[in-house]
Amino acid sequence: MKQAGIDNWLGKRVWVIGASSGIGEACAQALLKAGAKVALSSRRVERLTHIASSHPVEQSLVLALDVTQAQQMQAAYQTILENWDGLDLLLFVSGMYIPMRADAFDIQVAERTIDANLLGPMRAVALVLPEMLKNRTGHLAIIGSVAGYSGLPKALAYGPSKAGIINFCETLYYDLQPQGVSVHLISPGFVATEATAQNDFEMPALITAEQAAKDIMAGLEQGEFDIHFPKRFTGFMKFLRILPYPIYFWILRRFVKI
């Protein structure tokens, strides 16, 4: 049975966590343009205020927060409830990426990455899920990455954090689909953002944040669980995922020049 999509954005109440740049900012702009009410969250309040200033004041809320701080997230969600009396979509696109290989493994960086990329979404879901379950409606959309499909160079902490997100979303879908709550796993390939600007290698099938936002919106509208893009790249990564390890590692060493 297919889960529900979103057929009309007008008036929909959306919380975009990670809205100050990159994919999150592009999604926030697209949602506001489509008529949704958008709660904008990230640590950089000046960027959020700039986004909100281009739209009617009643259409957005600016809620600065750090996703590693549970009290800040609780306060932000309480503000949403007080102003909008509920939430239709949690869109969690916040995350951190620090390239790292085994010969420079830093456990403190790994801990911060897991805290932001895996525990951060879990904190947000824990906040909004009780109300969605009570109403038997709502959408949870969480950013993963093709880096979570299988082990990749320079993703020693980032990759495991995204692999955890994939598992988390799969289990959420299994549990929540019968309860009327839709779950959407978003797995981008390479998108031109502040994070990927750190990469010192060629990124195949690189797309803009605006194109990523279009793909995400389309996937949400159609009720897709697995929203991945661009498919010419993510399809290949899915294929690698099912290969025997000797072949997988041979391909990586042969074709991935990192």
Automatic annotation (TrEMBL):
Transmembrane segments in this chain: where? none
User: Does Cytoplasm count among this protein's keywords?
Assistant: no
Q: Which GO terms describe its cellular component?
A: membrane
Coiled-coil annotated residue ranges, if any: none
* Keyword tags: Oxidoreductase
Q: Mind telling me which Pfam families this protein's record contains?
A: adh_short
- Matches recorded under InterPro entries: NAD(P)-bd_dom_sf, SDR_fam
- Superkingdom of the source species: Bacteria
Protein name according to UniProt:
Short-chain dehydrogenase
Organism of origin: Polynucleobacter meluiroseus
